[in-house]
Amino acid sequence: MKRPAFAASLVRRRPPGDWSPALQALWWAAKGDWSAAHAIVMKHEDADCAWVHAHLHRVEGDTENARYWYRQAGKRPATSALEDEREAIVAALSEA
Hints:
Layout: H1 3-9, H2 21-30, H3 34-42, H4 47-60, H5 63-73, H6 82-95
């Protein structure tokens, strides 16, 4: 899945079912549904979901919680704009 496919999918009502939980959570975040995105990452303990979880807490404004999740993901805390971070995560997860 390429980044343009992610952006194009945002017109759908639901994310593609064959995407990873982390990408599905990012999809919901891009649609503005923080709660749906958070519910997904809460169910998974892998590094990709931890990274998305960190991003979600940045969106929420909870930087302390975000730092915890960046550590769980093995990532440095992001300082870029939220949309730029989301696009970078999509790109990284799409290449994996």
